[in-house]
Specification:
heterodimer, A: 15 helices, 51% helix
């Protein structure tokens, strides 16, 4: 018999016992739904994580710190002798120096390096005679995506003489709207410290232009309100505040890699040179790993449901063989081979698997329609999709379930194939 | 031509040994109408099964058109049945859930007749048994006589060389039986197809050209008319 003929006959036989077919298929659908939702959750979770990481930090930026124990462990033979200055010592007393910058800059894929500077402003004001406000200052040294209420930035970074103001500060500075603040002047007062860290009484105003107004976004893990200045301005401010002598000592560096560079290779190279390196990639991988574990756990439960449904298929098929003994006997009398008969029952199982898989995926899809409800109950931004169906994987799932069904139809179909037509057609 | 040479069929082992056919020999010419007459348990059905390749006697030969079908492999016997044999049974064995056309289509599908040829052959078979108006009816909605006519259509659709009819009128009233008998004998005469009727009814047997009487697994007599 031709495959297509057997397939059609199998479908017809199933339509004849609709209730039984649908019930068997529903058992498979339970597992299929679980697996579909698990895949959708994993998919959505990964996408959400990636989005979150993107808005929380620059994937191409690395934070480099000295190893805390580096200075003490420098010599293998014991403690360093007093008065003997080791020229090799790049890292001095837990701080990084120009030497370190040079060493890292030489690595492949490094675009720029900006030191992490600790600047303490006195106040910020819109001009002489205006209100003087105390506001924290931060340096925007990476290209981390930020959510803007107004204005525009290139590469998500301010240029020299530009400043980004958080939306929450607008009212204090007397701006009616975010748009109104763009292009306005902002003076930042930086006091001068002596080498001992005591204020000298001197101070200087740095005049900056508001280039953008930023705001908190749901996916940003580390948002904190601060006036954000460029690396160029921060270096000038730091130089003024601390004086030339301490300028070349930094507690950390922000290394920006070229777009498209292999960040993990660069990270390893820097680590090999004896620094502590942190990247957002590390955190992203940890988050993704957790999502993967949760997803596979859920898929495991779905697989259990599928295994349970296999016994349903086998049972139903056995009953079907018993019921249709005469039909099978007739087929064999008319010349159907064992293979034809076995195929007929295997294809019926395949139909059941197909039906169960499709029903399961469709129910899974209906579950994803609850995305807005999930987003609002988790207090996420509207439009966030935590469940995203992977249609290609769903097709794979349906095919997989068909294969599983065919395999579980093996024993009943063998019983049918082995049936003796003489016995089957005996009327007495 | 069908030549049966010394076939013996036994069931069971040792103490429970039962001999269904004892050294049966028989020759049936092409186009003959043959009655295999015998009481219940005489072995007449076993003989039919042996002739059609459904059963395999332990000894002897069943030579059909020069080929001993007992030496063929299972698949080849299946093909032989699909291409050369039609069956009609006492209880019809039509599939009630299928339409008459779908029932008739089965032997064509098994013999892998191309789909484009099937429609015409099904229509021809239906008109031969005067069931053309029931082409799309479910078989379960047919009367007993109609079901047996459907079974005949299914038996002849693939132009077999031999038709086996096992008590074809056993479940039918006499008027319907006559109609079925006429259909079978007419087909036998007009197409030159060998017709082998297995029955316990001497009246039906008397209408055949050759009567083989079976008793206790052996041929008692062969009469030509």
């Amino acid at each position: 018999m031709n495959v297509s003929d057997i397939f059609l006959r199998a479908g017809r036989n199933l339509r004849e016992s609709k209730a039984r077919t649908i019930l068997t298929a529903l058992a498979i659908a339970v597992g299929a739904t679980t697996i579909t939702v698990a895949m959708a959750a994993g998919n959505g979770g990964r996408a959400y994580t990636n989005e979150m990481v993107q808005t929380s930090g620059d994937a191409y930026s690395l934070n480099v710190y000295p190893k805390p124990e580096a200075s003490a462990q420098k010599t293998e033979t014991g403690l360093p002798e007093y008065g003997v200055v080791e020229e090799e010592a790049a890292q001095v007393s837990g701080l990084l120096a120009e030497r370190d910058i040079k060493e890292i800059r030489g690595l492949e894929g490094v675009k720029s390096i900006s030191p992490m500077l600790n600047i303490t402003p006195e106040y910020a004001t819109r001009g002489e005679g205006e209100k003087k406000l105390v506001a924290p200052l931060s340096i925007k040294a990476d290209r981390t995506k930020i959510d803007l209420a107004a204005g525009a930035l290139t590469d998500n970074m301010p240029q020299a003489s530009q400043v980004i103001v958080p939306e929450g500060y607008l009212a204090s500075f007397g701006f009616a709207s975010a748009q109104e603040a763009i292009g306005q002047k902002l003076l930042i007062n930086i006091p001068q410290y002596s080498t001992a860290g005591v204020p000298t009484g001197e101070a200087q105003n740095f005049e900056l232009t508001i280039a953008a107004v930023d705001r908190q976004s749901n996916t940003n893990l580390y948002y904190s309100e601060a006036l954000r200045v460029s690396t160029q301005d921060s270096e000038k401010m730091y130089a003024y505040q601390r004086g030339e002598e301490t300028v070349n000592r930094y507690y950390g560096l922000v290394v920006l890699a070229d777009q498209g560079a292999d960040i993990s290779v660069l990270q390893q190279q820097i680590r090999d040179r004896g620094y502590d390196v942190y990247s957002l990639e590390d955190q992203r991988e940890q988050l993704l790993q957790m999502i993967d574990i949760a997803q596979w756990g859920l898929i495991g439960f779905g697989a259990l449901a599928v295994i349970a449904s296999i016994f349903g298929i086998i049972n139903t098929q056995y009953i079907s063989v018993l019921e249709r003994t005469q039909q099978i006997g007739l087929m064999k009398a008319v010349g159907a081979s064992r293979r034809d008969v076995a195929r007929l029952f295997r294809y019926e199982a395949a139909w059941v698997g197909l039906l169960g898989g499709v029903i399961g995926v469709l129910i899974g899809y209906l579950v994803t329609l609850l995305n807005p409800v999930i987003a609002s109950s988790l207090a996420l931004e509207s439009g966030t999709e935590l469940l995203r169906i992977d249609w290609l994987a769903s097709v794979g799932l349906v095919i997989g379930l068909m294969v599983v069904s065919i395999v579980s139809g093996y024993f009943p179909s063998r019983k049918a194939a082995k049936l003796d037509p003489i016995e089957a057609l005996r009327t007495e | 031509m069908i030549e049966v040479k010394n076939i013996t069929k036994t069931y069971g082992k040792k103490n429970n040994l039962f001999t269904a056919l004892k050294d049966v020999s028989l020759t049936i010419p092409d186009g003959a109408s043959v009655a295999i007459l015998g009481k219940s348990g005489s072995g007449k059905s076993t003989l039919m099964h042996a002739l059609s390749g459904l059963d395999r006697p332990q000894q002897g030969q069943v030579v059909i058109d020069g080929q001993d079908i007992l030496t063929l492999k299972e698949k080849a016997v299946d093909r032989f049945r699909a291409n050369k044999i039609g069956f009609i049974f006492q209880s019809f064995f039509v599939t009630g859930s299928e339409t008459t056309s779908e029932n008739i289509s089965l032997p064509l599908e098994i013999a892998t007749v191309p789909r484009r040829d099937r429609k015409q052959r099904i229509a021809d078979a239906l008109s031969a048994v005067e069931l053309s108006d029931k082409a799309t009816s479910k078989a379960r909605n047919l009367s007993g006589g109609q079901k047996q006519r459907l079974a005949i259509a299914r038996a002849i659709v693939n132009n077999p060389r031999i038709i086996f009819a096992d008590e074809p009128t056993g479940n039918l009233d006499s008027a319907t039986s006559e109609k079925i008998e006429k259909l079978l004998f007419d087909y036998n005469k007009n197409k030159g197809v060998t017709l082998i009727i297995v029955t316990h009814d001497p009246e039906l047997a008397a209408k055949c050209g050759m009567i083989v009487t079976i008793k206790d697994g052996a041929v008692e007599s062969v009469r030509q008319r």
